[in-house]
Fold this protein.
Amino acid sequence: MMTSNPRTIAERLGPKWAHVAVECLDRVDSTSAWLARAELKRPTMVTAEEQTRGRGRRGRRWASPPGGLYVSVGWKVLPGTLIPPALPLVVGIYLCEGLEALGITGPRLKWPNDLVVNGAKLAGILVESIDNATEGRSFVIGIGLNLQTPSEGAHLPPDREAIGLEDIGAVPAREVLVAAAARAALEAGSLEPAAVSALMAEQWPAWDALAGRVCTIEHANGETCQGVVQGVTDEGALRLETEEGFRILWSGECRVRGGWE
Ligand code: BTN
């Protein structure tokens, strides 16, 4: 397996992101954990061919065998800065745009952080706020994108299947994909709050995989609620029409009832 070429990635990122440090590793515990340990004197992007402890949302593991795409971008923020709830969704919007520009058809977003194609998960997005005693606070955005369809996919429930780029069409060069993922994170992270709201209002509906679908939302404490998804607010919360009326949900796991048909 060839390690990605940092010069090629930097070229693909283009002049707007010339100040971003680009690191390419063979193997690492987690690209996001690597950034959490880094000084981040300047915004930094890291990719690895393989992760030994890839992390997903809610403390889950992210299976990261050699040959997948693992990218994280980190930068310092002022102490006390909070992650805007819509940030993962905006990363998703830019990632969909970037993938479509590369000829990958049909990417859609499944609130709160999945990129799906025909309902099957192609990529996951993890946004973390990291506090480091010496370096202060930083934001780290991690993107994992399946190149091959994970074999466990066959055993997942119908709304949780996974898919790899290889099963969708021609796979662009590794550096091209890494740069597209990194640029999505950088563009999203550079937006002012007002621009985030405007982008959500204008763009989310076009990428929304859940609108009009009956979904079950599971909260972190195990409680669930059901309803028809009616998009998201400009701030990134899910709008769910339930039998008791509209609910606005800021977090949770979403399952599509009865699959994606
Ligand atoms: C999810 O749970 O869907 C989010 C998965 C995010 C995985 C990526 S892979 C690159 C970065 N490094 C990690 O350890 N996790 C993120």
Observations:
- The chain has a mean pLDDT of 93.
- The longest strand covers residues 120-132.
